[in-house]
Amino acid sequence: CYTGDVMKKGGNRFNIDYYLDMVKEIEDTGAHILCIKDMAGLLKPDAASYLIESIKGVTNLPIHLHTHDTSSVQASTYRAAIRSGVDVVDCAISSLSGITSQPNFNSVASMYDPEVTGIDVNVLNKYSDYWEDVRRYYYPFETELKSGTAEVYNHEIPGGQYSNLRPQARSLGLEDKFDLIKHNYQKINEFLGGIVKVTPSSKVVGDMAMFMTSNGLTIEDIEQNGNNISFPDSMVSLMKGDLGQWKFGWPEQFQKDVLKGTEPFTNRPNEYLPPIDLEKEYESFKQQFPEKDSYEDFLSYLLYPRVFEDYYKHVVMYGDTSLLPTPTFFYGLKPNEEISVNIARGKTILVEYLNTNAPDENGNRLVIFRLNGTIRSVLVKDDSVKSATVVNIKVTKPEHVGAPLQGSLSKILVKEGDEVNHNQPLFIIEAMKMETTVVAPRDGVVTSVFLDERTLVHQDDLVVSVKGVE
């Protein structure tokens, strides 16, 4: 992961010796190929020549160069690297290239004789036309950087992170302080020693920049009053050693201030993780998440449990929205607009949106549409309408157990993973001092508990899910 500037003189810890030592270490592991990941687009043309030629002098491994074009000069960096013998470079089709993406594939290919490269640029241009249309659907996710910027050589924000940083700042109400966020990113990076910033370490620096900006903190404040500051969890994780050990170490007092008495790891963090019985855990996972129970889903859950749980709730509530056309998913249908949805092999449905009525006092609208030529309607909660009424997931499947009436969920008697017998009490609904105990409709296992105690529920609001024993 290329960091800093290999050409910088005087006290540069990321000098050519640093990289050549790393090359030898990687080669000793038995690697078949070496990749230079320039995640922020910091590798300048002259530095690329120097780095590639130096690496070629100590190894015969093929060299793969990856960069981002935030500075707008990375096509020149590729040109210099190719002349110096690099074997692979990463590009992006022209309509999806540049700025925080990769350099322009069409343009880089055009620099060379097509008889040598075997690349037909005219075909690339046709692909580019297609992706230019597709890109319009995703404009809310654009980096909003209109042109290349040499600022990247100062703040060193990786391309992938820069794309998300402004939307993140907007969500926190800090968009008007985006320049200060970039400034704080640079300052905390320098304070930590110019660390290698790539997921997830780059997120730590970004979180800290946001934290400093939202709380009006400077590096001096952190140095002088760090013991009284509650730092972001990601920074605590970094200082503890959850992301591994850095050969240069951390500012000693800062690490103490962040950890507040907790001892950091001194070796690989995965040595502290308890072992997992994959077979046993997978069986438990399938019981808990019956809608998405593939082994790949299981691995996703182990790595990112909270993210997977949020995703699973989305699937339970809305179904497989990946089947919808992209414009429909992001922006909905216009009146009298019709789409086709492939819900299974050889099974396509036609959906035409007709009309929507005014919202009721609870913020619900009746949405009218035509499904394969038949008029249908569905009640939908309009999130843009302010309402004190909370809408919960409804019972839709045999394993779902819902509230039989409107009231308060006074007591939940089971938890996820419990084995229950037919007619065993699951939860109690209280309505106007009348209590109703809801029991299990079958022998089985409680796979999910969707609501908390004291939640106000309506009839058929989903409370628990019980999967029957085979």
What can you see in these coordinates?
By secondary structure, the chain is α+β, with helices and mostly antiparallel strands. Helices cover 36% and strands 18% of the residues. It contains 17 helices and 15 strands. It has helices spanning 16-28, 45-56, 74-83, 105-110, 114-117, 121-136, 152-155, 159-171, 178-191, 201-215, 219-225, 233-240, 252-259, 278-288, 295-303, 305-318, 326-331; strands spanning 34-38, 63-67, 88-89, 338-344, 347-356, 364-371, 374-381, 400-402, 407-412, 419-420, 425-431, 434-439, 444-449, 456-457, 462-468. The strands form 4 sheets. It has a 4-stranded antiparallel sheet with strand order 4-5-6-7, with no helix packed on it. Strands 8-15-13-10 form a 4-stranded antiparallel sheet, with no helix packed on it. Strand 1, helix 2 and strand 2 (63-67) form a beta-alpha-beta unit. The longest helix has 16 residues, at 121-136. It is globular and about 75 Å long.
- The assembly state of the depicted protein chains is single chain
Shape: globular
Radius of gyration: 28 Å
Q: Give the tally of β-strands.
A: 15
- Largest sheet entry: 4 strands, antiparallel
Mean pLDDT: 91
- What fraction, in percent, of the residue positions are helical? 25-40%
How many helical elements? Answer: 17
